[in-house]
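Lay summary. Proteins are chains of building blocks that fold into shapes, and those shapes determine what they do. In this project we predict the shape from the chain. Here is one chain we studied, written as its sequence of building blocks.
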Amino acid sequence: MLCDGKIMVQTIGDLRRGRRTTEERLCRNNLIPTLKDAVPGDLSLVFPHRIMVDIMEMIEALDKVTPGIASDETLLYGAEVKFYSNKVVVNKDFETSIKGLRAIGDGASVTRGLQQASANGISAARSILKKSNWNTK
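And here is the predicted shape, written in a compact code that computers can read:
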């Protein structure tokens, strides 16, 4: 959406300063992007905050091993990823549209906790036993 399906590039210096890398700043950078069609931008709009913090912590740690990696001119590439909350359609017995396949708990987007997911599992197991004509007592 932000890059028209292309890879985004940002300098570490711009990331540290909380600003997006622009075409103009990228042209003034001493490092030339190896991906020629990479789009200058702001990776913090693409990745969750905690991921960006982890990436910067890793780069700072690598800089102690290989000084210069955390240079303001170092280029970071990132693909824009969007997560959507998909919901698997299930019936009252947790059956999906695929014969023999059931989805329960968070996998079916019907619960948000262990207790509910456990209850889903018991309910699905009872349904399987009932359908297979096994004694459920």
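What the prediction tells us: Helices lie at 12-16, 23-28, 49-65, 114-131.
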